[in-house]
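Re: the 286-residue chain
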Amino acid sequence: MRQALLRLLIGFGAGAAAGLEAPWGLSRRDAIARSVMPGSLLFGAVPALAADRPEERSTYSKVSKAAANLPGYGPPDVWFPEQFLGSWTMKRTVVSFDTANGPLNEKAALVEEQLLRSLPAGPEVQYPVRFQRLGNNVIADREFNERSYFEALAAATKTAAPSASSWDPTSPNVLTLTLGSGAVIEKKVTKRGTEGDAVAQGGFGSSEFSRIAETDAAGVGGGVPKLSAIRTLSRWKFDPRAAPASVKKIDGIELTLFYDLNNIVAGVDSSKPSRVRKCRLELSRE
Protein backbone atom coordinates (compact mmCIF):
# COMPACT_ATOMS: atom_id res chain seq x y z
CA MET A 1 0.00 0.00 0.00
CA ARG A 2 2.77 2.39 0.93
CA GLN A 3 4.54 1.86 -2.41
CA ALA A 4 1.25 2.30 -4.28
CA LEU A 5 0.64 5.62 -2.57
CA LEU A 6 4.15 6.76 -3.40
CA ARG A 7 3.62 5.90 -7.07
CA LEU A 8 0.37 7.83 -7.11
CA LEU A 9 2.01 10.84 -5.52
CA ILE A 10 4.94 10.77 -7.92
CA GLY A 11 2.43 10.73 -10.77
CA PHE A 12 1.03 14.05 -9.62
CA GLY A 13 4.12 15.82 -10.95
CA ALA A 14 3.58 14.64 -14.51
CA GLY A 15 1.05 17.29 -15.58
CA ALA A 16 2.22 19.79 -18.19
CA ALA A 17 2.07 23.52 -17.65
CA ALA A 18 -1.39 24.87 -18.38
CA GLY A 19 -0.30 28.45 -19.17
CA LEU A 20 -3.25 30.09 -17.44
CA GLU A 21 -3.45 33.72 -16.43
CA ALA A 22 -1.91 34.74 -13.12
CA PRO A 23 -4.42 33.68 -10.44
CA TRP A 24 -4.51 36.73 -8.22
CA GLY A 25 -7.66 38.18 -9.74
CA LEU A 26 -9.56 34.92 -9.28
CA SER A 27 -11.98 34.20 -6.50
CA ARG A 28 -11.02 31.34 -4.23
CA ARG A 29 -13.77 29.20 -5.76
CA ASP A 30 -12.44 29.94 -9.26
CA ALA A 31 -8.92 29.08 -8.17
CA ILE A 32 -10.14 25.64 -7.11
CA ALA A 33 -12.15 25.18 -10.29
CA ARG A 34 -9.24 26.13 -12.54
CA SER A 35 -6.81 23.78 -10.82
CA VAL A 36 -7.97 20.76 -12.80
CA MET A 37 -4.80 18.79 -12.08
CA PRO A 38 -2.35 19.45 -9.28
CA GLY A 39 0.44 19.24 -11.83
CA SER A 40 -0.84 22.25 -13.78
CA LEU A 41 0.66 25.70 -13.29
CA LEU A 42 -1.52 28.77 -12.82
CA PHE A 43 1.02 30.60 -14.93
CA GLY A 44 3.46 29.22 -17.44
CA ALA A 45 6.66 27.53 -16.33
CA VAL A 46 9.48 29.60 -17.80
CA PRO A 47 13.15 29.97 -16.83
CA ALA A 48 13.90 32.87 -14.53
CA LEU A 49 17.25 33.65 -16.15
CA ALA A 50 18.90 32.81 -19.45
CA ALA A 51 22.38 31.41 -19.84
CA ASP A 52 25.32 33.62 -18.96
CA ARG A 53 26.52 34.08 -22.55
CA PRO A 54 24.10 36.03 -24.82
CA GLU A 55 24.58 33.64 -27.75
CA GLU A 56 23.26 30.77 -25.61
CA ARG A 57 20.10 32.48 -24.40
CA SER A 58 17.77 31.47 -27.22
CA THR A 59 18.67 27.76 -27.10
CA TYR A 60 18.77 27.72 -23.30
CA SER A 61 15.35 29.34 -23.10
CA LYS A 62 13.77 26.84 -25.48
CA VAL A 63 15.26 23.83 -23.70
CA SER A 64 14.34 25.16 -20.24
CA LYS A 65 10.76 25.91 -21.23
CA ALA A 66 10.34 22.39 -22.58
CA ALA A 67 12.04 20.75 -19.59
CA ALA A 68 9.98 22.73 -17.09
CA ASN A 69 6.91 20.82 -18.27
CA LEU A 70 8.44 17.46 -17.32
CA PRO A 71 8.38 16.04 -13.79
CA GLY A 72 11.69 16.52 -12.03
CA TYR A 73 12.84 19.25 -14.39
CA GLY A 74 12.51 23.02 -14.68
CA PRO A 75 14.76 25.67 -13.11
CA PRO A 76 17.12 24.19 -10.47
CA ASP A 77 15.73 26.69 -7.97
CA VAL A 78 13.64 29.85 -7.89
CA TRP A 79 15.98 32.67 -8.91
CA PHE A 80 14.75 35.87 -7.32
CA PRO A 81 15.36 39.43 -8.54
CA GLU A 82 18.31 41.29 -7.00
CA GLN A 83 15.86 43.30 -4.87
CA PHE A 84 15.38 40.25 -2.61
CA LEU A 85 19.04 39.79 -1.68
CA GLY A 86 19.75 40.11 2.05
CA SER A 87 17.92 39.73 5.37
CA TRP A 88 14.26 40.63 5.93
CA THR A 89 11.41 40.36 8.38
CA MET A 90 8.54 38.35 6.96
CA LYS A 91 4.99 39.12 8.04
CA ARG A 92 2.63 36.33 6.99
CA THR A 93 -1.13 36.77 7.38
CA VAL A 94 -3.71 34.13 6.48
CA VAL A 95 -6.40 35.92 4.47
CA SER A 96 -8.66 32.96 3.71
CA PHE A 97 -8.87 29.20 4.04
CA ASP A 98 -11.36 27.18 2.03
CA THR A 99 -12.12 23.48 2.12
CA ALA A 100 -13.69 21.84 -0.90
CA ASN A 101 -14.88 18.62 0.75
CA GLY A 102 -16.52 19.78 3.96
CA PRO A 103 -14.81 20.39 7.31
CA LEU A 104 -11.05 19.94 7.50
CA ASN A 105 -9.99 16.41 8.29
CA GLU A 106 -7.66 16.86 11.26
CA LYS A 107 -5.85 13.63 10.44
CA ALA A 108 -5.03 14.99 6.98
CA ALA A 109 -3.91 18.43 8.19
CA LEU A 110 -0.20 19.14 8.05
CA VAL A 111 1.67 20.14 11.21
CA GLU A 112 2.05 23.68 9.89
CA GLU A 113 -1.72 23.99 9.42
CA GLN A 114 -2.37 22.75 12.94
CA LEU A 115 0.08 25.27 14.42
CA LEU A 116 -1.33 28.15 12.38
CA ARG A 117 -4.85 27.46 13.61
CA SER A 118 -3.55 27.37 17.18
CA LEU A 119 -2.11 30.89 17.11
CA PRO A 120 -3.66 32.77 20.05
CA ALA A 121 -3.44 36.19 18.38
CA GLY A 122 -4.97 35.15 15.07
CA PRO A 123 -3.57 33.84 11.78
CA GLU A 124 -0.51 36.13 11.61
CA VAL A 125 3.15 35.47 12.33
CA GLN A 126 6.42 37.39 11.90
CA TYR A 127 9.87 35.87 11.54
CA PRO A 128 13.28 36.59 9.95
CA VAL A 129 14.05 35.33 6.45
CA ARG A 130 16.97 35.78 4.13
CA PHE A 131 17.90 35.47 0.49
CA GLN A 132 21.45 34.63 -0.48
CA ARG A 133 23.63 34.56 -3.55
CA LEU A 134 24.45 31.30 -5.29
CA GLY A 135 26.77 31.95 -8.21
CA ASN A 136 25.23 34.79 -10.20
CA ASN A 137 21.73 34.16 -8.85
CA VAL A 138 19.71 35.06 -5.75
CA ILE A 139 17.93 32.20 -3.99
CA ALA A 140 15.93 31.83 -0.79
CA ASP A 141 17.80 30.28 2.13
CA ARG A 142 15.16 27.59 2.42
CA GLU A 143 16.58 25.94 5.53
CA PHE A 144 16.91 29.19 7.49
CA ASN A 145 13.50 30.47 6.35
CA GLU A 146 11.60 27.25 7.06
CA ARG A 147 13.22 26.74 10.43
CA SER A 148 12.65 30.39 11.35
CA TYR A 149 8.97 30.06 10.38
CA PHE A 150 8.45 26.98 12.55
CA GLU A 151 10.38 28.57 15.42
CA ALA A 152 7.97 31.53 15.29
CA LEU A 153 4.97 29.19 15.23
CA ALA A 154 6.40 27.22 18.15
CA ALA A 155 7.03 30.37 20.20
CA ALA A 156 3.51 31.66 19.55
CA THR A 157 1.84 28.34 20.39
CA LYS A 158 4.18 27.54 23.30
CA THR A 159 5.35 24.30 21.73
CA ALA A 160 8.87 22.93 21.32
CA ALA A 161 11.03 24.62 18.67
CA PRO A 162 12.62 22.66 15.81
CA SER A 163 15.68 20.72 16.89
CA ALA A 164 17.36 20.03 13.55
CA SER A 165 17.17 20.82 9.85
CA SER A 166 18.93 19.81 6.65
CA TRP A 167 19.16 21.42 3.21
CA ASP A 168 21.81 21.89 0.51
CA PRO A 169 21.59 25.09 -1.60
CA THR A 170 23.43 23.37 -4.46
CA SER A 171 20.80 20.61 -4.48
CA PRO A 172 17.81 22.56 -3.19
CA ASN A 173 14.84 20.28 -3.82
CA VAL A 174 14.84 18.38 -0.51
CA LEU A 175 14.48 20.02 2.91
CA THR A 176 14.13 18.09 6.16
CA LEU A 177 12.97 19.59 9.45
CA THR A 178 12.87 17.83 12.81
CA LEU A 179 10.44 19.41 15.26
CA GLY A 180 10.88 19.61 19.00
CA SER A 181 8.21 16.94 19.38
CA GLY A 182 10.36 14.51 17.40
CA ALA A 183 8.16 14.69 14.32
CA VAL A 184 10.06 14.82 11.03
CA ILE A 185 8.91 16.77 7.97
CA GLU A 186 10.46 16.18 4.57
CA LYS A 187 9.53 18.48 1.71
CA LYS A 188 10.64 17.61 -1.82
CA VAL A 189 10.04 19.98 -4.72
CA THR A 190 9.31 17.97 -7.85
CA LYS A 191 8.30 20.73 -10.26
CA ARG A 192 8.69 24.50 -10.42
CA GLY A 193 8.16 27.42 -12.72
CA THR A 194 8.91 31.12 -12.58
CA GLU A 195 7.39 34.21 -14.11
CA GLY A 196 10.26 36.67 -14.46
CA ASP A 197 9.12 38.66 -17.49
CA ALA A 198 7.61 41.41 -15.31
CA VAL A 199 10.68 42.13 -13.15
CA ALA A 200 11.33 45.40 -15.00
CA GLN A 201 7.83 46.48 -13.95
CA GLY A 202 8.37 45.40 -10.35
CA GLY A 203 6.63 42.02 -10.50
CA PHE A 204 7.80 38.45 -9.95
CA GLY A 205 6.03 35.13 -9.54
CA SER A 206 6.83 31.48 -8.94
CA SER A 207 5.04 28.15 -8.67
CA GLU A 208 6.26 24.98 -6.97
CA PHE A 209 4.75 21.53 -6.59
CA SER A 210 6.02 19.61 -3.55
CA ARG A 211 5.58 16.19 -1.99
CA ILE A 212 5.50 16.24 1.80
CA ALA A 213 6.09 13.30 4.12
CA GLU A 214 5.42 13.78 7.83
CA THR A 215 6.36 11.17 10.42
CA ASP A 216 5.15 11.78 13.95
CA ALA A 217 7.31 11.27 17.01
CA ALA A 218 5.90 7.81 17.69
CA GLY A 219 6.52 6.70 14.12
CA VAL A 220 10.16 7.75 13.74
CA GLY A 221 12.28 4.78 12.72
CA GLY A 222 9.52 2.61 11.36
CA GLY A 223 6.17 4.39 11.19
CA VAL A 224 4.36 5.03 7.92
CA PRO A 225 4.59 8.75 7.07
CA LYS A 226 1.60 10.90 6.25
CA LEU A 227 1.93 11.75 2.55
CA SER A 228 0.58 14.96 1.08
CA ALA A 229 1.14 17.20 -1.89
CA ILE A 230 0.96 20.97 -2.15
CA ARG A 231 1.24 23.54 -4.90
CA THR A 232 2.51 26.93 -3.77
CA LEU A 233 2.05 29.98 -5.98
CA SER A 234 3.66 33.26 -4.99
CA ARG A 235 3.39 36.69 -6.56
CA TRP A 236 5.56 39.64 -5.47
CA LYS A 237 5.48 43.38 -6.13
CA PHE A 238 8.26 45.90 -5.48
CA ASP A 239 9.41 49.34 -6.62
CA PRO A 240 11.33 48.80 -9.87
CA ARG A 241 12.66 52.37 -9.88
CA ALA A 242 14.70 51.94 -6.70
CA ALA A 243 18.20 50.47 -6.64
CA PRO A 244 17.97 46.83 -5.49
CA ALA A 245 19.80 47.42 -2.20
CA SER A 246 17.57 50.39 -1.35
CA VAL A 247 14.28 48.46 -1.60
CA LYS A 248 12.88 48.30 1.94
CA LYS A 249 9.53 46.62 1.34
CA ILE A 250 8.23 43.88 -0.94
CA ASP A 251 4.57 42.85 -0.89
CA GLY A 252 3.34 39.43 -1.90
CA ILE A 253 0.41 37.06 -2.15
CA GLU A 254 0.75 33.31 -1.66
CA LEU A 255 -1.80 30.71 -2.72
CA THR A 256 -1.33 27.18 -1.37
CA LEU A 257 -3.35 24.27 -2.75
CA PHE A 258 -3.39 21.08 -0.66
CA TYR A 259 -3.96 17.56 -1.99
CA ASP A 260 -4.60 14.54 0.26
CA LEU A 261 -3.60 11.01 -0.69
CA ASN A 262 -6.27 9.81 1.73
CA ASN A 263 -8.83 11.01 -0.81
CA ILE A 264 -7.40 8.72 -3.48
CA VAL A 265 -7.73 5.67 -1.25
CA ALA A 266 -11.27 6.68 -0.25
CA GLY A 267 -12.32 7.16 -3.86
CA VAL A 268 -12.86 10.92 -3.48
CA ASP A 269 -12.06 13.12 -6.50
CA SER A 270 -8.41 14.07 -5.97
CA SER A 271 -7.97 16.08 -9.17
CA LYS A 272 -8.96 19.21 -7.25
CA PRO A 273 -7.39 20.52 -4.05
CA SER A 274 -9.04 19.53 -0.79
CA ARG A 275 -8.29 22.99 0.60
CA VAL A 276 -6.90 26.31 -0.54
CA ARG A 277 -5.15 28.88 1.64
CA LYS A 278 -4.40 32.46 0.68
CA CYS A 279 -1.78 34.45 2.60
CA ARG A 280 -0.69 38.06 2.42
CA LEU A 281 3.09 38.39 2.64
CA GLU A 282 5.16 41.42 3.54
CA LEU A 283 8.95 41.61 3.49
CA SER A 284 10.47 44.60 5.27
CA ARG A 285 13.91 45.73 6.39
CA GLU A 286 15.52 48.82 7.89
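Residues 142-157 form the longest helix (16 residues).
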